[in-house]
């Protein structure tokens, strides 16, 4: 059977999407479609098993479980209320203060957790009820919580950027970290402007006037928790740590802060913290191993070249090609897990983007923002389901009320896509 066999490609994709729509977990769908196609092609299953091992046997990959564990420790360590307090001190004076606090809190908290779902669950559980009590519409309060949760996936440290570096090959993790900061802040700015306009129109309240002493006091309380981010970013950029070493150090630091500084974690709870982190880690590691099989078949069947030829057959216009890539990513993000998309799609689309002159770091920021939108988009958006559970609003209601936020996030996505300096200013400035 020839590597470019159309029937094998149809089998691989058909089984994969068939299993997805049947409700099979994404990891099993990837493995199932890969092994069925391998049997059809007559590929030795031992080869497929070796691909799983090869995909997991990467030193830099060790950073992922450490980052996830550090985020879990900090979530349980009492940092949320301190970050909300800091956010109130910084932007509580603005009209629609709690909406602005929500956005700023997500910058801080999301950068620690690196997870849109965790940000929505933690910050949302605190702020959505407060916003309702303060007269905010429940849908609006939930929407701003979900939309702003995407910021932390861009602002380092982000385990999704480590996964992208793994999928892309020789890409500096430090450069990816720096490339996400300005896009994350841009998203916060765009959302903040929209929330201000809505708050003025609906006469939502504002808090007390800015007080420097209160702000400094709030910063002092939150600083130990924020130190986790500073350790990782400064350590990696300064060449003090590798990403893996920085992530491991962050776990130890976070435990010390949670146990002895904030004193929100009890020694008896450490087992539960590790158990919760292990659930997430096991899913991601399974996806990485399974995606290694899938990616090997994509290469074996020459699918990357076929997709590239198909896109270039439609148009050679750089801007339209990037728009098509974004549409493709959005569609994938609506039905698939983010980690799986990064692992499977990056080797296919990144060469196309780089041929157009796009920097891999710029592509990474664009992809993560794009897929972050997918996390709050039906039918499979995990963050959307969490927001629905907290607010007691239906998925349909939230999807409709989210439309203006989708538009604002779309504006940020287009700016990141077509203005490379937004992503590349800091990496180039820092020389990484």
Protein model, in words:
- This protein is 79% helix and 0% strand.
- With 432 residues, it is mainly alpha-helical.
- The chain has one domain.
- The longest helix is centred in the middle third of the chain and has 31 residues, at 270-300.
Order of helices and strands: HHHHHHHHHHHHHHHHHHHHHH
Could you say which structural class the secondary elements and strand pairing correspond to? mainly alpha
Q: What Rg do the Cα atoms give?
A: 22 Å
Largest sheet: none
> What is the overall silhouette?
globular
Alpha-carbon distance between the two ends: 45 Å
Would you tell me the overall average pLDDT?
86
Strand content: under 5%
In total, the number of strands is 0
Uncertain residue segments: none
- Share of helix among residues? over 70%
Instruction: Indicate how many domains the architecture comprises.
Output: 1
Number of helices: 22
Briefly, what is this?
The protein is mainly alpha-helical and 432 residues long. It has helices at 6-21, 26-41, 45-56, 63-76, 79-91, 97-113, 116-133, 138-148, 151-154, 159-168, 173-202, 212-237, 243-261, 270-300, 303-314, 318-335, 338-355, 360-374, 382-391, 395-401, 403-418, 421-430. Helix 6 runs antiparallel to helix 7 (116-133).
Defining key terms:
0% strand; single chain; 432 residues; mainly alpha
